Amino acid sequence: FGYWNTVYKRFNEWARKKKLIRIFKFLSRDTDLEWEFVDGSIVKAHQHGSGGGEPKNQAIGKSKGGNTTKIHMCADAFGLPIDFELTGGEVHDVKAAPGFIDRLPTGGYVIADKGYDSEELRQRIIEKKSIPVIPRKSNSTIGNGDMDWGLYKYRHLVENLFARLKHFRAIATRYDKLKRNYKAMLALPCSFFGYLCETSTAPSINQKHGISKQLLMGLLGPISLPTTVTT
């Protein structure tokens, strides 16, 4: 890969300008939005991943398990990533959900587990003209009479997505000090999955969306490497 500092400067510049996020958004724009599976997964943050400096919130939380980051992910009906967000590992799913779900497309089914059991969240999803499929906890007085269990059992698609993402060492354990850099690192395999889907479902990727090396480089844009960077 060449000299590590040169590689890091290039990656850090891409992360700072959100270029890898732009590629992910580009490749995920045609996902199947009828079903939207939402879940969170915790990853350990390596001791060298702490101390990222300002801003203080680098999405690393402290708990009994040590330093952790939680990935909040939304997958489509094929188990492909639609969107994701990062918080500290101690942040409860239902607390992070409102801001995350507000960014999701409207009109489909939003499927999540009991960790997202909140009437306020259900109402928020309904206001987006989507349908919540979230089971209520056993102590609920409302019950689950209206629950679509047949659709809920497909929630394993987002769990399978996490399993595939964690095959990558830099995702399974967080080594990046900065939230933006870990987010860019996560965008790489998410983009890769989207690219594989595009190439496997169309005779020619260029015929379907005109995706080419020139187009991807256009999304990345010209790069000017800084002389000093935050490590």
UniProtKB/TrEMBL annotation:
InterPro entries: Transposase_11 (IPR002559). GO terms for biological process: DNA transposition. Residues 46-65 are annotated as: Disordered. It comes from the Bacteria. Residues 38-188 form the Transposase IS4-like domain. It holds the Pfam family DDE_Tnp_1. GO terms for molecular function: DNA binding; transposase activity. NCBIfam families: transpos_IS5_3. PANTHER family: BLR1914 PROTEIN (PTHR30007:SF1), PHP DOMAIN PROTEIN (PTHR30007). This is Transposase. It comes from Candidatus Kentrum eta.
